[in-house]
Amino acid sequence: MASSPTPLSWPAKDPGDILDYQLDIEPALVGNVGDTISSVDIDIEPSQPGDLSLDNTAADGYKIVLWLSGGQANVTYNVTVLVVLASG
Known about the structure:
Blueprint: E1 19-24, E2 37-45, E3 52-60, E4 63-70, E5 78-85
Antiparallel strand pairs: 1-4, 2-5, 3-4
């Protein structure tokens, strides 16, 4: 069952930093005890050279960790996270 995207806001990042950001999806899995993350797909907009980039992604239990680098000062980036569960 797909749900509507929930906008979240992470703190500002300096373009020279590589930072990890966590997303806990456990509250969205109420009623699906034992379900696990099957895959994670990340989309970042805007996505031109020099913009924010995804260095790595990891899923651990119900938490997704994104390592982000680069980006332009004073630009807001939209990071869309699509999670597919083992249950489909």
